[in-house]
């Protein structure tokens, strides 16, 4: 191998190593960058409007249809559905609904709902005042629960948006719990899992 070939090989190795390090760094930074991008643009329906909403009046000149959709990944065995598939609201009006969840398994589980809003342009105008998605939801084996959602649509919602879809994906977080779970046992008092 000539001296010129060695220099070219070393240069190529340095370039490939630099490219690999740059790709790793980009991949590592992608999630936070994506979250910032979604927050600024409202794309992907990420809804950051959580907690009390500052709405001054109710716009009774129009209604907005709110559709509710639920999704369970294949690994999540719970039954999960909205009590109402859709409702009509006046912008600025507080509305409450609920979602139903049932744990059909033979063991205690913990779930977390992750919301998304469509169209993404509507995400900044849908305020979840109180939502079951704010907290993890533990359920005993065979138990069911109604989970409340209190929301308001901002009257500043653009006029051309007449329907908003609020969807929730429900994920199993049981293995991620760092707390013990105590259940009653007839023969031995209580058992800690």
Polypeptide structure, described:
The protein has 193 residues and is of the alpha+beta class. It has 2 domains: 1-41; 47-176, Sandwich (Ctag/Cox11 (Pfam 04442)), CATH 2.60.370. Helices cover 20% and strands 37% of the residues. It has 1 helix and 11 strands; from the N terminus they run αβββββββββββ. Strands 3-1-9-5-7 form a 5-stranded mixed sheet, with no helix packed on it.
Q: Looking across the biggest beta sheet, what order are the strands in?
A: 3-1-9-5-7
Distance between the termini: 65 Å
Average pLDDT confidence is: 82
Which spans have pLDDT < 50 for at least 5 consecutive residues? Answer: 187-193
Q: Helical proportion?
A: 10-25%
Q: Give the helix/strand class.
A: alpha+beta
The domain tally reads 2
